[in-house]
Known about the structure:
It is built from 8 helices and no strands.
Amino acid sequence: MSSSHIMTAFDEELKYLTRRISEMGGLAEQMVAESVRALVHSDLALAQKVISDDVILDDAEREIGEKAIVTIARRQPVASDLREIMGSIRIASDLERVGDLGKNNAKRVVAVAGSGIPRKLARGLEHLAELALVQLKEVLDVYASRSPEKANSIRERDEEIDAIYTSLFRELLTYMMEDPRNITPCTHLLFCAKNIERIGDHATNIAETIYYMTTGAQLEGERPKDDNTPSVGATGA
Length: 237
């Protein structure tokens, strides 16, 4: 087999991984958006769809991992090619976790459907989800362009989501203190808000992976964080 044929086959394998990552990203975005919509509108059918879609995302991650292992064994790539393949495995793992977080939110729709969500809290959840989804969409665009500068920029903006999450955390505590009947639904919403905040963390993970894939270097310093919920207490709410 000629070296040119081997290189062409290897390029096709890399393109396959890139395409599957993009497909995973699109489904993960959809699941997150639909899970929040299901929460806000108490849409049980949509929540069940999100839960069912998680199986597709799980299968895609497993398929990418298996393809990557076979490619490494067959081609024995080095340097940037090896980083490309290993990066695909890491990004697929992050996207699978994003899907899990969307599924977990969808599972809580039944728990909060009976009491409903106050409009102010619904707006807070929607705004938090909007920021997380923008960050996820942008990092998937960066995966296509392989821009290390844009990857670093996304990492630097992670604190925006943390700040909104902290504000929503305070609001939920206030509702719980005002009326004990709010404790159960607001506890579920606290978990939902944390899940959305963690989606932003996974988008940041992907940004760091892309930076490493393209430069061979790790981003230095700690991520900017603005999650102050550990210091929020009843008196500070």
